[in-house]
Design brief:
This protein is of the alpha/beta class and 375 residues long. Helices cover 34% and strands 19% of the residues. It is built from eleven helices and eleven strands.
């Protein structure tokens, strides 16, 4: 029996990197594996994760084996392995709801979502699938701005009694009402909006925290990002960006010595460049003042493959959710959510969140809601 049984809602680039990564690390030993924050996390290796159910709405993926669907258009992320063995898991038609932005119809099919001509599953059908497959954790990869769709799958996880890892900036774990529902049911919850392993926001946070620790007054800053995957195309609709901008901005504001006025901080996706595919380019500028009120500025350019960067964190979040479930711990996992996500229920510095997560993994201390809030 697989150690950790997961389902995936949204078989896009991030799901592709996760599925590929699970297979990739099964072929590795701890000695020759690179790119992980933890090889062994509470007794679980990356290869101990198995996908047992998957949902999507694209005609090029629905009905296909997951091993084939993860490489279907519009996915464009890098291949970590030449192929992925047959999973024996057929991608099921999910619920569209607000998962597709209207403007995406103006682009070629190879760049966009193309809805399948299948009946959409109802809530009870999704719940039944989760139960029948033995799913322990549902991983949410809905497109940015999919508020209704995210709440749909979060509700399905609650009904099925499965843990929920919310990788997108629709607020579930950081919403006290949703957090309370998971705590009442004793079901683990991690979220919201997963950080990259080494991406724009985590780098921006670390630099902002460095300014604070070194006594540099941060006066203004921006973070501009471009990319060519469906995530960036989807986000050309600025109406879908409200929660994303809140999530990314709050992640930086929460570690600053003093919160910046809104006109002095700009953080968010900037544009879609199709030929970049899954490559994301980030530009960060920070202006401040040093000793003697002397001005300084910093500029940084970061180029990363977006989806593998996310999978490197998701693979740890999944294992933490499994640990909590095995221990009978429900509700928001405060430390792991703060360390793995941009918009957790409670913000901490990355050093604090890292230590809380290590303590959680080792089962050393209570990292529940009673932990004192930082900042």
């Amino acid at each position: 029996m697989p150690a950790i049984r997961i389902a995936i809602a949204g078989v896009g680039n991030c799901a592709s990197s996760l599925v590929q990564g699970i297979h990739y690390y099964r072929q590795k030993s701890q000695q020759d594996a690179i790119g992980l924050m933890h090889w062994d996390l509470g007794g679980f290796a990356p290869g101990d994760i198995e996908v047992v159910a998957a949902f999507d709405i694209d005609r090029r993926k629905v009905g296909k084996d997951l091993s084939e669907a993860v490489f279907a258009e519009p996915n464009c992320t890098r291949r970590l392995s030449p192929d992925v063995p047959l999973c024996g898991v057929s991608v099921q038609m999910g619920r569209i709801l607000d998962g597709i932005a209207d403007h995406m119809r103006d682009y070629e099919d190879r760049y966009t979502f193309v809805p399948a001509d299948f009946p959409q599953l109802g809530r009870q059908q999704v719940v039944d699938t989760l139960k029948e497959s033995g799913t322990e954790i549902l991983v949410n990869y809905m497109p940015v701005g999919s508020e209704e769709a995210t709440r749909f799958y979060a509700g399905c996880a609650l009904d099925a009694g499965t843990a929920f890892v919310n990788c997108v900036p629709s607020f579930i774990a950081s919403d006290p009402q949703w957090a309370g529902r998971y705590e009442k049911r004793g079901i683990p919850l991690i979220g919201d909006d997963i950080k990259s392993q080494l991406g724009a926001t985590i780098t921006h946070r670390v630099l902002t925290d460095l300014f604070r620790k070194r006594g540099v007054k941060l006066e203004r800053t921006y973070q501009l990002n471009t990319g060519g995957n469906t995530d960036f195309l989807n986000m050309l609709n600025r109406q879908r960006l409200a929660s994303k901008k809140t999530s990314k901005t709050e992640a930086v504001q929460s570690v600053a010595a003093k919160r910046l006025d809104s006109e002095n901080i700009h953080i968010g996706p900037s544009d879609y460049v199709s030929w970049q595919k899954d490559n994301k380019v980030c530009f960060i500028r920070m202006e401040g003042r040093l000793f003697g009120d002397v001005p300084m500025d910093l500029e940084l350019r970061l180029s990363v493959e977006d989806s593998p960067n996310s999978a490197g964190v998701a693979i740890d979040a999944i294992r933490c959710a499994k640990l909590a479930a095995d221990r009978g711990q429900g509700g928001v996992l405060i430390g792991p959510s703060a360390y793995f996500c941009k918009h957790p229920l409670r913000q901490f510095t990355d050093d604090e969140a890292y230590q809380m997560t290590e303590d959680f993994i080792a089962n050393r201390v209570d990292t529940g809601p009673s932990v004192k809030k930082s900042n």
